[in-house]
Queue: 2 jobs
Job 1
Amino acid sequence: MNILGIETSCDETAAAVVRDGCEVVSNVVYTQIPLHRQYGGVVPELASRSHVEKIGEVIGKAIADARAAGVEELDAIAVTYGPGLSPALLVGLNAAKGLAMSTGAELVAINHIEAHLHTPFLYDAGSEAVPPPRLDRSYLGLAISGGHTNWIDIPRYGEYRTIGQTLDDAAGEAFDKASKLLGLGYPGGPVLDKIAREYGTENLIPFPKGRPREGVAALDGLEADLCVSFSGLKTALLRYVQRHDSGSFDVAQTVASYQEAIVQSVADRTRTALRRRRGIEALIVGGGVSLNSRLRTVLADLCEREGVKLLMAKPKFCGDNGAMIAGLAYYRRNVVGDDAMRVDATPSLEIG
Ligand code: KG4
Ligand code: ZN
């Protein structure tokens, strides 16, 4: 089954064709990062306009590349309907609806966060295949991106329940805001990652590890010790910078310490979740922050110690892309057919 996936929830215009849920036949991503860089963050109206300009070309190339690889026909068209920026989501959603109507292919509406959790199962056509998800096994999911930091119980592939999450900023946001504060550029994640990698993990400043107050999380029906808060860490960084005149503190040491605080708080909650849930098949990690080299190392060590398999996407599938939308659609028909035709952009769509 060949599915075209379309993704425009934030600042990537993306489309891909995926065969049987995991084999990526074509994958086209146009990133708007240079457009938003001058503003230090994504400007929704500019994002939407840029999606409109590029969507036709990106979808056209994904289909043409798939044809060149032997795909004759599309069986379904999958599209992100949330969460994300409303004017950006609408561009992809309308393009997908139009295409489904004109071709007669089935329309599938997909949750962006769930799609990130499918990325470890994606592989390029012609490269070594990755084992597909085990449909009858339970997993622990960690969705970690610019908008989300969620620990998700997956009792069976396709069933999700958020058991912990950030109570304020997402991990990616914490990276981006620190980078802005330190004048290091946008997006912050890759910049901070590189600086921290070169500095190492010796002699770090003890920034707070982000444990939220008990009770706050319990209100939302989440497990309090699986929640995290990054606002205290952000304030600690601000105070640290204010206390030191520019030039009188070591930027690399500060960045490495800040990153370590994020990584260790994420690892801590993940360890707690893994120990609480016995008999899980693997930890699935997805989202832009899963590109972070320190996080990858720390989670690999953690999973080895806990005796759990770690499933992380290849770097090319970590950021937003259409392949994760098309791939998940094969397994998880979130909203399909006529219902999908009626679906609206849902900016604050949750998972589980
Ligand atoms: O998944 P994604 O592309 O978009 C959302 O769904 O949000 O994630 C983007 C986020 C940004 O905050 C970016 O700074 C972060 O992922 N990011 C990283 C790294 N690469 C991207 N964070 C930490 N380390 C990285 N290497
Ligand atoms: Zn994303």
Job 2
Amino acid sequence: MKTIRLREGKERSLLRLHPWIFDSAIARGGADAGETVRVESSSGQFLAWAAFSPSSRIRARAWSFTEAQRIDAAFLSALIGRAIRTRACFDIQSDGLRLVHGESDGLPGLIVDRYADTLVAQFTSCGVERWKDVIADALLRETGLSRLYERSDASVRGLEGLPEATGWLRGGPAGDAPAPPTELTIREHDWRLTLDITTGHKTGFYLDQRDSRQRFAVHTRHRKFQHVLNCFCYTGGFTVAALAGGAAHVTSIDSSGPALERARANVALNGFDTARTTFLDADVNASLRGFIEAGKTFDAIILDPPKFAPTAAHADRAARAYKDINRLALKLLVPGGELFTYSCSGGISADLFHKIVASAGIDAGVEGCISERLQGAPDHPMTIHFPEGEYLKGLVVVKKPEGTGLLNEIGTIPA
Ligand code: SAH
């Protein structure tokens, strides 16, 4: 068994059960890609068993902090089984759900999503890459499913020195049998949504916003929003939610043509009249400015942009970009209107995001009240030891109605 010895004082994060070991923390030792190493402090004290990543700044990721634990197929299969069984404790109103959420499920670098009867996995660390076959078999055994597609095309694989890998890992075309479908339909809440696991973002869909989409439908129904603007709409999840909530018209913007095409198809699939929708293939910032110039207003606006700040190093520039779109959106709302605004940037904390939205309000000359805080759906768990798992945060901001107290016209939105 190979050992890596840390520099003095660098054991602290492992003692707090944080799974990452940076290259700068290591005094000596090394191993092959994905190989299990014993990690010890500068004085030789056992700290963790970890998977080694020879070319990544995150040089090793902990599998276990228990010295007696063997890192083998049985250990990994048990972790996968536990992650899958944990999902049964949540009230997930969908057959599209995340079964394994990386570090938060004790499996650093592994994402597994289930879309109806198909599994899609992403391997983004040398550790899970090395154990891919064991993981694939465990996933089929624990779910009882037979199809597993790999979407290991995330850019972070490059940081691990791993090439992109996509295709069927299990249950792919065999002999003369036709290839299994890659365009799938999931049932989420009261609606159905299609996605493509080969070309869609991430593993095909933004499962983390499931509960927010439902929340938006509830607000739309309760507050009787008529004109909704869905910015960064992707395949139209929030658009369908708004229509299901009774919105008269939804304007949806995205810069991806294929995503918009699917969004349109998702509206039709749910039986809504496409005359209630406008889809714009455009830049959100430019569109918001254009709406202000044209004197348009909306009753509710969703801002769910892509990750502007992947790490804290990008936070400054990202903060300006977030502030700008939030300022424009707050201006476009009618008094009493609601902004559902999100950041999925790991580099922007919930506290910083709140400050950004607050200064957007100041610059827009708008008073607002935060009526709800939102986060990723529960199948994207966060652990207390791994704050990086808390990437998605959202705020519902109510624009102050003229001549009234901040919220006395609105009251409480039902659960
Ligand atoms: N709300 C969506 C997910 C949004 S993901 C859902 O519930 O499924 C972010 C989207 O922003 C992507 O679809 C991407 O194509 C789009 N996007 C990125 N930059 C953009 C820009 N400048 N203007 C418009 N859309 C953009």
